């Protein structure tokens, strides 16, 4: 694949970008190398590097929207916004958006294949270590990936888990970003059959992702993974609108009654005995059919609270702590339209930029990936670097690899 007109020259220092990402995301590296334990410092190094390599990005509307969003977040924080409780959270909010956005901008504008392939194989190794390590630790402590939340709340996080992270255990956040990469990853598998190295490594990447989703114990992530798999495999070489209608009709029964997924999984021997968190599917099904699902009803109340706070002060936000159950709704309530609109506009700039370089098939898969990412940000309160990495950087990297060429 080649970009028809490169507006930037590839730079060797850009290979440090994926290294910084792996150091910030991989619990295996962070547990063995003390310097990487502070993700704040690691991402700061990445931002400084980006300043020297991707200066062109600073003239883009995309960057200006990120900067505007940061200004609103900082002002709200200074005036008592308790949703962002400290400077570290405020700065990381900027780092996650800026660093991954500027890097993917650099990759597409410079056609830096070395950076792309290094990111691709590095992520394969990172997810491989996390999947194999999590499988091993899960055999010792069942549901350990999910239990990390309880350990953190009990204040025993470091004592219990540090030795497990050294064995490769994934953190709880990593599986949340994996449904985003499934559509472009399957497209890459379909298009790389002539390249055995990329083909088999992509299959491994898909396998590791599914293992981590399975062990993650998060019902929402499981449902979005099935949505991604169904949507991609049902995608035919017809018009985009026909594909969406066809996929919608197939998926509608599962949307109306999520409990059907429990029945499908039961055919393969997956049930509450083999993995207990699937009981959440039954709870979701009860809520969809009768409104009686306790966990789902509680989550809906938390979503409603964020919306209620937004309605109190739609423009400026309420500066009150949100529920941390929806990245988008929480920021809508805390920041109001003055902060929420720049964030959405930033994501739309990202979508428009990547969409411009893709062919028709890639655009369908990118659209699915984008929708899944928005659903994760809408239904989960996890706006962590793991999710932003998969959303803003790695998913476009997979689309890049699936191109025969990038259209100008």
Secondary structure topology:
Blueprint: H1 16-25, H2 27-32, H3 39-53, H4 61-78, H5 87-110, H6 113-140, H7 144-154, H8 157-165, H9 178-191, H10 196-216, H11 219-233, H12 240-256, H13 259-267, H14 279-290, H15 294-312, H16 327-335, H17 337-356, H18 360-379, H19 385-401
In short:
The protein is mainly α. The chain is 72% helix and 0% strand.
Strand content of the residues, in percent?
under 5%
Inertia-based shape: globular
Instruction: Please compute the radius of gyration using only Cα atoms.
Output: 21 Å
Query: Sheet with the most strands?
Result: none
Q: What's the helical proportion of residues? A: over 70%
Based on secondary structure, the structural category is: mainly alpha
Description:
The chain has 408 residues and is an all-alpha fold. The chain has one domain (15-401). It contains 19 helices and no strands. α9 (178-191) packs parallel to α11, α14 (279-290) crosses α15 (294-312) and α15 packs parallel to α16 (327-335). It is globular. The two termini are 12 Å apart.
């Amino acid at each position: 694949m080649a970009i028809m007109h490169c507006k930037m020259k590839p730079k060797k220092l850009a290979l440090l970008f994926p290294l910084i990402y792996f150091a910030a995301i991989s619990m295996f590296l962070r547990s063995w190398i003390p310097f990487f334990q502070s993700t704040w410092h690691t991402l700061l190094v990445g931002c400084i590097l980006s300043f020297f390599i991707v200066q062109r990005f600073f003239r883009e509307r995309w960057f200006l929207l990120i900067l505007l969003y940061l200004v609103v977040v900082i002002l709200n924080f200074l005036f008592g916004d308790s949703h962002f409780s400290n400077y570290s959270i405020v700065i990381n909010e900027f780092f996650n958006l800026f660093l991954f956005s500027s890097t993917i901008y650099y990759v597409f504008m410079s056609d830096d294949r070395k950076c792309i392939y290094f990111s691709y194989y590095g992520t394969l190794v990172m997810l491989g270590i996390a999947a194999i390590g999590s499988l091993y630790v899960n055999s010792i402590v069942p549901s350990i990936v999910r239990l990390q939340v309880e350990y953190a709340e009990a204040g025993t996080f470091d004592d219990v888990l540090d030795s497990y992270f050294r064995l490769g255990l994934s953190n709880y956040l990593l599986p949340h970003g994996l449904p985003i990469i499934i559509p472009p990853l399957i497209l890459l598998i379909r298009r790389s059959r002539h390249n055995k190295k990329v083909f088999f490594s992509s299959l491994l990447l898909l396998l590791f992702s599914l293992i981590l989703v399975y062990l993650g114990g998060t019902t929402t992530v499981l449902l979005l993974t099935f949505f991604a798999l169904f949507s991609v495999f049902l995608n035919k070489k017809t018009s985009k609108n026909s594909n969406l209608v066809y996929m919608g009709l197939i998926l509608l029964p599962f949307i109306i009654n999520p409990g059907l997924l429990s029945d499908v999984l039961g055919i393969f021997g997956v049930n509450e005995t083999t993995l207990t968190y699937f009981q959440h599917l039954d709870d979701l099904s009860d809520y969809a059919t009768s409104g009686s699902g306790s966990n789902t009803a509680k989550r809906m109340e938390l979503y409603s609270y964020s919306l209620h706070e937004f309605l109190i002060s739609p423009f400026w936000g309420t500066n009150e702590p949100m529920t941390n159950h929806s990245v988008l709704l929480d920021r809508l309530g805390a920041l109001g339209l003055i902060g929420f609109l720049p964030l959405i506009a930033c994501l739309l700039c990202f979508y428009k930029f990547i969409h411009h370089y893709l062919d028709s098939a890639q655009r369908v898969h990118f659209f699915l990936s984008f929708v899944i990412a928005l659903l994760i940000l809408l239904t989960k309160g996890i706006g962590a670097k793991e999710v932003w990495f998969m959303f803003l950087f790695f998913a476009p990297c997979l689309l890049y690899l699936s191109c025969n060429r990038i259209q100008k």
